C-alpha cells in the first residue's frame, strides 16, 4: 500500500510539476506562441491625406522592431507605425520625426490618432462622443513637412519584453526605468535610421508629457552616438518632478510647485467663470498672475512660519481673487493648494470636479466629501474613443495586429526613478537637455503648453526652460508657444491647427 501511494505521489508530482522531472524545452522561433515576438513583423499599405487643402500620398508601415543585447539575444519587441511621403526624388534627405507619448507606461495612440497621423479620431472637443466611433481625414497631419514614426514604449502597444522563457534575454528591469527606457528609445531610433536609410535626414524628437522627460535624455544619448538632431519638440513638459504639486507633501520645504501651478489655477477659474472679478481677456490676466507667483506669493511662502498675520491674510485674499477658491479654504491649506485639491474644490458647489490634464472638462464627483477627485473627467470623455478607433484603424486599414492585443497602458511597475550615478533627489532631466544643447549649439528646442493643464502646468515648463544649466546665449534656441487648451493641446480643434502651423514652421526653419 505504501509503495502504491509513493507511485501515485510520484505521478501527481510529475504531472503537476513536469519541469522537476523533465528536461526544460527552450522555445524556438517556430513556436507559434512566441514567433511573432522573436522576429520583426511589418505590414505595408498606402494612403492619401489632405493637409490644409494639399493632397499627400504616403506609404504606411505598421510593425514591430526587435532589439537585441550585446550577445545578439532578443530582449524586446517594440511596435511602431511609420508614414513616408511618396513621390520624392531623395527620401533620405526628408525630415523625419520620432513621436511618442509618456506615462511612463503609455502607448502612442494619443499623438497618433489625435494630432499627427493621417487619420484622427472624431471628437467634439469637450462634448462626449459614443460608439460607433470613427476616424476622419486629419487636416493637420504633420506629414506635410516630415515623415513620421510613432513609437510605442516598452510594455505597451503590440510589443512585448522577450523574456528567457520566450527564447530571449529581456527582463522588466532592463526597460522600466528612466535611463533604461531612454536607452530603448535610443536603440530603436538608431536601428530605424539604419534600416530605412535615414542617417542623412534632418531628425526631430516629439514627446508629450513624460515623453518630454524622455526626449531630454534621448537627445543626450543620441548626441553621444554622434547622431545629431535638428530639433526637440516638447508638448506639456515636465523635466523636474519636484515641480509637481501632487508630490509636494513628499518634498516638504519646496514651495515652488505652488507658485508654478497658480497661473493654471487662474486660467481654469477664468474658463469656468469662478473668478470674483473675471477679466474679458485671459492672457493679460495670466501675465499679472505669473508676476504675482514669482514675487509677492513667493516672498510670502518663503517666510514659512515667520509670515505675519497681515501678509498671510493679504496673500489669501489675492489667491481668492486669482483662483476663485474661498478665502477660508485657502487659509486652511496654509496658502498651499495642490492640484487635486483645486480640481475638487473649484466646482464643489455643484458637486462637480474639473479635469486634471485638461481642466476645461468637468464631471460629477463620485466622492463629494473627499479631498481629491477619484478620476480625471477628461479620461472619461476620450479614452474609449481613442482606444476603439485605433484598434479598428490598425486592423482594418493598416492590416496589422489582428493576432495581437494592443496595450494602451502597460504595467510598468516597479519603475526605477533613480538616475545613474551623480543624480540625487527627485527625477530631473534638465541637465540632459542642457548638455545636448551645449554640445550641439545648433540644436533648436520648441516648448508647447496648454493653459488649462494642471498635470504639467504651462508656467512650470517655461520656468524649467529658463533655468536650464547652460549659457544664457543658448536661450535664443528655445521657442515658446501656449494654447487655449489642456495637456493634450490637440483635443481643442482651433489649437490643433495652431499647433500644426507652429510645429511645421519650426521644422521648416531648422533644416
Properties at a glance:
signal; carboxypeptidase; glycoprotein; 511 residues; 15 helices; disordered N terminus
Protein described:
By secondary structure, this protein is an alpha/beta fold. The protein has a domain at 243-378. Helices cover 35% and strands 17% of the residues. Strands 1, 2, 3, 4, 7, 8, 9, 10, 13 and 14 form a ten-stranded mixed β-sheet that branches. A two-stranded antiparallel sheet has the order 5-6. Strand 2 and strand 3 form a beta hairpin. Helix 4 (178-195) packs across helix 5 (210-224), helix 5 (210-224) runs parallel beside helix 13 and helix 6 runs antiparallel to helix 7. The longest helix has 20 residues, at 377-396. The N and C termini lie far apart (85 Å). 45% of the residues are buried.
Amino acid at each position: 500500500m505504501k509503495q502504491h501511494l509513493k507511485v501515485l505521489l510520484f505521478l501527481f508530482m510529475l504531472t503537476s510539476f513536469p519541469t522537476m522531472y523533465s528536461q526544460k524545452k527552450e522555445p524556438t522561433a517556430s513556436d507559434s506562441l512566441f514567433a511573432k515576438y522573436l522576429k520583426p513583423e511589418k505590414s505595408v499599405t498606402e494612403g492619401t491625406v489632405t493637409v490644409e487643402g494639399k493632397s499627400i500620398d504616403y506609404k504606411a508601415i505598421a510593425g514591430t522592431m526587435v532589439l537585441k543585447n550585446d550577445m545578439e539575444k532578443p530582449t524586446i519587441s517594440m511596435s511602431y507605425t511609420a508614414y513616408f511621403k511618396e513621390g520624392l526624388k531623395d527620401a533620405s534627405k526628408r525630415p523625419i520625426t520620432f513621436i511618442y507619448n509618456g506615462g511612463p507606461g503609455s502607448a502612442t495612440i494619443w499623438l497618433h490618432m489625435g494630432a499627427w497621423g493621417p487619420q484622427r479620431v472624431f471628437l467634439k472637443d469637450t462634448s462626449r462622443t459614443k460608439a460607433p466611433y470613427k476616424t476622419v481625414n486629419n487636416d493637420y497631419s504633420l506629414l506635410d513637412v516630415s515623415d513620421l514614426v510613432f513609437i510605442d514604449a516598452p510594455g505597451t502597444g503590440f510589443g512585448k519584453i522577450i523574456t528567457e522563457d520566450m527564447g530571449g534575454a529581456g527582463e522588466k528591469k532592463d526597460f522600466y526605468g528612466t535611463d533604461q527606457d531612454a536607452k530603448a528609445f535610443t536603440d530603436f531610433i538608431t536601428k530605424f535610421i539604419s534600416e530605412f536609410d535615414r542617417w542623412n535626414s534632418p531628425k526631430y524628437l516629439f514627446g508629450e508629457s513624460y515623453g518630454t522627460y524622455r526626449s531630454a535624455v534621448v537627445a543626450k544619448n543620441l548626441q553621444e552616438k554622434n547622431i545629431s538632431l535638428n530639433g526637440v519638440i516638447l508638448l506639456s513638459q515636465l523635466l523636474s518632478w519636484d515641480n509637481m504639486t501632487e508630490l509636494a507633501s513628499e518634498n516638504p520645504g519646496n514651495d515652488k510647485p505652488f507658485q508654478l501651478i497658480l497661473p493654471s489655477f487662474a486660467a481654469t477659474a477664468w474658463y469656468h467663470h469662478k473668478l470674483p472679478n473675471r477679466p474679458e481677456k485671459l492672457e493679460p490676466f495670466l501675465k499679472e498672475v505669473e508676476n504675482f507667483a514669482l514675487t509677492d506669493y513667493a516672498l510670502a511662502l518663503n517666510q514659512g512660519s515667520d509670515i505675519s498675520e497681515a501678509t498671510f491674510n493679504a496673500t489669501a485674499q489675492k489667491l481668492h481673487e486669482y483662483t476663485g477658491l474661498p478665502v477660508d479654504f485657502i487659509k486652511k491649506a496654509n496658502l498651499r493648494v495642490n492640484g487635486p485639491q483645486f480640481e475638487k474644490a473649484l466646482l464643489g458647489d455643484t458637486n462637480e470636479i474639473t479635469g486634471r490634464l485638461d481642466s476645461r472638462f468637468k464631471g460629477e464627483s463620485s466622492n463629494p466629501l473627499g479631498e481629491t477627485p477619484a478620476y480625471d473627467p477628461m479620461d472619461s470623455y476620450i479614452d474609449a474613443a481613442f482606444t476603439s478607433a485605433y484598434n479598428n484603424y490598425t486592423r482594418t486599414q493598416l492590416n496589422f495586429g489582428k493576432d495581437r492585443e494592443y496595450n494602451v497602458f502597460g504595467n510598468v511597475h516597479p519603475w526605477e526613478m533613480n538616475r545613474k550615478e551623480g543624480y540625487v533627489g527627485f527625477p530631473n532631466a534638465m541637465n540632459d537637455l542642457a548638455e545636448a544643447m551645449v554640445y550641439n549649439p545648433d540644436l533648436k528646442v520648441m516648448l508647447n503648453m496648454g493653459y488649462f493643464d494642471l498635470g504639467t502646468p504651462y508656467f512650470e515648463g517655461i520656468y524649467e526652460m529658463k533655468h536650464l544649466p547652460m549659457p544664457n546665449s543658448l536661450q535664443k534656441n528655445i521657442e515658446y508657444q501656449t494654447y487655449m487648451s489642456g495637456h493634450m493641446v490637440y483635443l481643442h480643434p482651433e489649437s490643433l491647427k495652431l499647433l500644426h502651423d507652429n510645429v511645421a514652421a519650426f521644422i521648416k526653419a531648422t533644416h
